[in-house]
Design a protein that fits this description.
Elements: H1 6-27, H2 32-50, H3 52-59, H4 65-80, H5 83-97, H6 102-110, H7 113-119, H8 122-133
Helix pairs in contact: 1-2, 2-3, 4-5, 6-8
Length: about 140
């Protein structure tokens, strides 16, 4: 079992609430306030989990500049009043930022009994295989 410090536990909660607010904001027809709160909570939760310095290094690497621009540009788009465009920018930036983690996540999900069999279905399996094998999603 992984032991977490108190700040990492707070970060997990903030990240979870951030994801909840993002999904809830999309369900409520792209509510600007909920999307903005979700983004703030997600990024601050990530900072609590991995630390401020590592968060800064993760987002501001030279080869991730485009991804960070899309991911953080979403906040500006939502504040301007274009929540749908902002969410599309954020999804694209999220995939660019975290594409190195997808093969690990797919491998983990394949070992879960029910989800692993769902990933084995022909229609879903081809897409998941492409995501799980490749680091180049763009």
């Amino acid at each position: 079992m992984i032991s977490l410090t108190d700040s990492q536990k707070i970060g997990m909660g903030l990240t979870g609430f951030g994801l909840f607010f993002l999904v809830f904001g999309m369900m409520l027809f792209f509510d600007k306030a909920l999307l903005a709160i979700g983004n703030i909570l997600f990024v601050s939760g990530l900072s609590f989990v991995i630390g401020l310095e590592r968060t800064f290094r993760f987002f501001f690497q030279r080869h991730k500049a485009k991804a960070t621009g899309f991911f953080l540009g979403e906040v500006l788009a939502v504040l301007i009043g274009w929540p749908v465009v902002g969410v599309l920018l954020e999804i694209y930036g999220f995939f660019l930022l975290f594409r190195g983690f997808f093969p690990v996540a797919v491998g983990f999900i394949r070992r879960i009994p029910v989800l692993g069999s769902l990933l084995g279905l022909p229609a879903i399996g081809t897409v998941v295989d492409k995501i799980g094998e490749s680091n180049n999603m763009v």
